[in-house]
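Recap for those who missed Tuesday's class. We walked through two folding examples back to back. For each one, the amino acid string is listed first and its predicted structure tokens come directly after. Nothing is annotated here on purpose, so try labeling regions yourself before you check the end of the notes.
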Amino acid sequence: MEKMSGNSGYKEYVAGLMAGIAIVITGHPFDTVKVKLQKHNTEARGIKYKNGLHCAARILKTEGVKGLYRGATSSFIGMAFESSLVFGIYSQTKILLQGGPDGGKPQPQAIVPSAAFGGAIISFILCPSELVKCRMQVQGADSVLPSSSRYGGPLECALKTVKCEGITGIFRGGFTTLLRESFGNAVFFSTYEYVRYHLHLQRKGASSESSQLIDIGVGIMSGGLGGIACWSAVLPLDVAKTIIQTTPEKNHTRNPFRVLKSIYARSGLRGCYMGLGPTIVRAFPANAAAIVTWELSAKLLGIKRDFN
């Protein structure tokens, strides 16, 4: 397994920031489709999309490529800080719990709490940025929102939210975000670590010339599969979060389990997993890009990772 130099500290956070940028560039269009499906296809009335492809085609027809990147500004800011913190906190906490750098098989007793802790911390940053992102995403050309409720940009959205709902309004869905990020990151990093460990066992004996190419391949597989495992586990919580953050009613319940119970009664299990298609399609490339970018950035920054 990898060994990291003791002075890697802040560099892990810089590498994580680069990973976040890679996630947004790769995955935001899929995320826009997912949010629209979750918002509109779980409502009792309003527009319905047949599937993710139909939703994407409609966005492109009515708004162009720009529509797929609606809300990307807040997403770039939120994801950059989120990834910087989650990768940095995860790496440093795992070393602390293990009593030193990795030296062999992944240790779940260090991986799971480190990932969950990182997820809990970043949820406080991610919640407001995702609230703005989601509200921007659902107000496209197909939205039934009145013009008075539309936002000209992310900053206007944030300011209007605070003005109308108070400072707590910008943190609407915070508990659900915390649950999603804690559990989701535990699943993601556990899958990532185990897949990477076993793939690197298979690569022993490979020539040095092909080593870097193999590292990229391992990063793609471990990151991609980690992303699929994560989102398969937490998508219902994400559906609940989207509903909580985008509903116009101020007194709407913020309990994710009540929201999911209501969705289940109306749309069944399919409703609780609304947006699964674009989420899974997005999960592999976006998280593969994140891991490859993280590991390459770490290497460029001089963080030593040598495998036994």
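Example two. Treat it independently of the first, because the proteins are unrelated.
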Amino acid sequence: MPSSNSASRRQFLQGSLAAATAPYWWTSSSLAAEATAPSDLPAFAAIGLGGQGSGIANQAAGLGKMVAAADVDSARAARFAGVMEKNHNQKINTVEDYRRLLERKDIDAVTIGVPDHWHTKIAIEAMQAGKDVYCEKPLTLTIDEGKLICKVARDTKRVFQVGTQQRSDRQFSEAIALVRAGRLGDLERVTVGIDQAPYSEALPVAEAPSTLNWDMWLGQAPAVEYRFGKDLKRWYGKKSGGDGGADASNGHYEFRWWYAYSGGKLTDWGAHHMDICQWLIGQNGDGQGPTLVTPTLAEHQVEFDEQGNPKQTDRYSVATRFAFKMDFPNGVEVNLTSEARNGLLVEGTKGRLFVSRGGVTGKPVEELKDNPLPEGAVDEVHGKGRPWNHMQDFVDCIRTRETPISDVFSHHRAITSCHLAGIVGRLNRPVAWDAASEQITGDPIAQAMQQRKQRKGYEIVV
């Protein structure tokens, strides 16, 4: 994987385990300060126990009580149960079917770390069952799923935190504070850089692992055979050559490179950076979003039919290299691309800055030494008194019933932009978007791609 992606994921998981094993009173929040009695801690269940799923569940366990977990892979469930007992002295029961957990009255909230194509169904059913939800990004597989999840969130009034942890990283709020203070002048352009996705050789059909319920893993996606290749050649960019061998499949983490289950880097890193971008340019409110998305580069290793469906189904299908120009009604141009450094380059009439997980740099930042921001400017962006810990913010909001820092509604608008880019890339033509009605206009084929046909027995019901 590119170094920026591997390092950031590794840093997040290490931070998750550190937070989970630290004493509870080390956390900096109102909940910890009140020395809450164990009987008052929220009771969690974890759904999805892969790398990221286990990471967020570990964080939750360090701030509450983990009482149960679900995964369609029994090996992952058993491993997680062992970690809970070792790290937290919490004995949990595990199940294959997450619905068994939603039936329980002793569970207050769930963490959801399953593949993207399962996020919406599980989150909606959890809210309908009266559970608060922490769900990994990208929240949805399609644009129309976002509309459904927002409706249920409004109807049920459950606390819902999306796992876009960058909203709890101080440097991103600092960048927004600089923009709001006029240090860049009038905004003109934001370049959102995210990593390329890998190409792969054809993956042969294989027998699914004995511990994995493959049919349930597929969920709403079409019923297909499991594919796995040992030490297959994978590479980035058509001319870059191979990067050695790697195990590859159409399941577990590798799901991210198949349109049936994900949107590739566009919805992986794109979910993080477009969220910050639209927050920064003031386009994450109701009825806001791009008006036109235009492709300038869209490379795939598969071909698509006229409806945007991959013709080859034995290899990765998501965009490998890409660049999209997005026009917003406030006149700011946004370029979402795999061809720029990972992060956001923000340009205005008076200067520019670059912000990423590594920090925020640029002349406006250097000038803070002699011309600091007004006191409290960064906290005003982030929320005065809000903890700089994403999971802690969720736990606090479970008690206060306030809206978390990464709410489902603003995330839906940001991930919609990413989904639009995915549609544009597959069709290789511009698409117009009406943010008020949340509809693609003037292109019936593109409009039909706002949703997916769901396999019988796995439909999302609202």
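Answers for example two:
The CA atoms of residues 220 and 459 lie 6 Å apart.
Residues 1-38 have pLDDT under 50 and may be disordered.
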